[in-house]
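Project channel, design review

CF: Before we commit to the Pontiella agarivorans constructs, I'd like one complete example in the thread so the newer folks can see what an input/output pair looks like. Taking Homoserine O-acetyltransferase.
RD: sounds good, go ahead.
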Amino acid sequence: MPIKIQDGLPAADVLNQENIFVMTESRAVAQDIRPLKVVILNLMPIKKNTEVHLLRLLSNSALQVEVDLIRTATYEPKNTAPEHLSTFYKTFNDIKMNKYDGMIITGAPVETMEFEQVQYWDEICEILDWTNNHVTSTLHICWGAQAGLYHHYGIPKYGVENKISGVFEHTVRTTTEAIIRGFDDRFLAPHSRHTEVRGDDIEPVKELSIISESKEAGIYIVLAREGRQIFVTGHSEYDPLTLKEEYERDLAKGMNPVIPANYFPDDDPSKLPKVSWRSHAHLLFANWLNYYVYQMTPFNLEDID
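CF: and here is what came back for Homoserine O-acetyltransferase:
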């Protein structure tokens, strides 16, 4: 949460230059507080796991958050019980007349397909267009980030020779954006994907800003529309054993997967992985909720445009 200080205090200029969030008394008085409404489009196959991953991070905040879960209507998920879906999930048609403070669009196991070949691509496009004037800030994750960059800005994705799997070191390209407040100059985050977006395609687009990247894993965080769209190509929300489970699943399918990099001690899959990205994950989600949702959203949801 921000530091509230007197209007005109000289320290405010210094703190702002250091990318520390301060709030003057006059701004604080004008704020109203209510629960934030966040909708999650869960495209991951094992939905219960993703629910835990995301809700854990959303809960690590002083803010009260109300969550709606939605799934695709044009594709029936195969790895989650129908009873769970009917009890806890809505479809886009159920909520499209609503407005939300924030939205999360997850990854999906369809990245090796061309976007237009994905069975629910038309539905995704409709949802992405809807976010423009129904959501204050949308956080796109992994394939969700690639889909958003492609649909909104025409940024293509490219296949990679070997799956980008593991925990990789990242650097911050710019220190002036609130999404990376409190980040170390170098930090770790997991990735798990067969495709990538490239800086050479993103940099010429004036609406897009590359915030963070990795020498090994490539582009990581991209911002647009002053944070109303945030694209994160990795999986900071992953549990300690998620990459292990994915690796073992691919082994069982006879896929001969690469061992996730920088993950198992001594690159030995028989050893228990150590978590090295948890603090970054919590800070990423806390920054998004605070600075791009709570601080930017109107008190009256109907005023979102």
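RD: helpful, thanks. Residues 72 and 90 are 9 Å apart (CA to CA).
CF: The domain at 36-239+281-296 is CATH 3.40.50.880 (Rossmann fold).
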